[in-house]
């Protein structure tokens, strides 16, 4: 019996390996949620059928208890679409096998489905640790439900000793760990592909931005010089027109500097700075803007958090994210909260607002070249923000729900110990 269960592990893992192969080799397919969920549901359904039929057909519903694992995986990672497909395949196979107690098998599997369903909606957005813990807890729950159901109805074979039941339970946990590992490796591989694609796009765009900025800056300098000479002798309306021209030239220079910062952020003065001090400075600068937009700006920063960066550049990056949050909540009385804390060996700066939020499609292309959710935005500000934070070894993550708000999480490396002591 245990040998059959060990073979069942292969029956379950093989379809998941096939799912992993398809997703890793076809990035565009993975990004289409419905197709991905249908494929996962089909693979998990096949795993359930194989578990029930191979190496021999089941003789009772505790005989192949491992089939609950692909059902849980389908619901959690494939949402209601994947879970429903797997459940239908299970029920069809169970019906065709023709064993008694089909109602008990149906009800226990339905309870397992129902237990996993509440976690399915945002399961893929949770941390890997959270996903692993929930999967294990649901596996334990499924075992208790199945074992308890057949024990209470006196359907458990008398030949099954407590030691055998313990072995089944341990094998179930091991199989779930292996299945979750396969799913997490798939997610990690896709994330790496996304980072590679984004990096390639950034490099191409930065080269274009640098060449464009340098080509424009030279004639712009000449134009600005002649305008300054003309201003000395200008009077009346001509002087006013020249002053407006100078203001617009200044705006153009600001945009060109953004292009250059995006192409290659220049860290002119690297130092070690306390995060709390940086954030308090930004809060003081942004407070008048927040009040003008009827936004409550709150901040909470842990002490003894230090980063190594160019002070003006990191302030520029964080200010832009905070300003975006204020703009997103300005339509009504909103709230923007800033928190800084240590997580493992990283410093996290979380900027959260309760504004308009973004759709999944908008979120997926956020930070792309010249993309902006604002009507008159150029997208340069966020592009520069990404480049500055990447240049000091950090990264930015966004989570958002349409109509509920957005959370930006900036993760930065801590300053080296030698720098702190200096």
UniProtKB/TrEMBL annotation:
GO terms for biological process: cell wall organization. InterPro entries: HATPase_C_sf, HATPase_dom, His_kinase_dom, HisK_dim/P_dom, HisK_dim/P_sf, Sig_transdc_His_kin-like_C. The keyword Cell membrane does not apply. Its EC number is 2.7.13.3. It catalyses: ATP + protein L-histidine = ADP + protein N-phospho-L-histidine. It is an enzyme of class 2 (transferase). Residues 211-416 form the Histidine kinase domain. Pfam families: HATPase_c (PF02518), HisKA (PF00512). Coiled coil: none annotated. The chain crosses the membrane at residues 12-30, 39-58, 70-90, 102-120, 132-152, 164-183. Keywords: ATP-binding, Kinase, Membrane, Nucleotide-binding, Phosphoprotein, Transferase, Transmembrane, Transmembrane helix, Two-component regulatory system. GO terms for molecular function: ATP binding; phosphorelay sensor kinase activity. Signal peptide: none annotated. The keyword Cell wall biogenesis/degradation does not apply. GO terms for cellular component: plasma membrane. This is histidine kinase. The lineage of its organism: Bacteria, Bacillati, Bacillota, Bacilli, Bacillales.
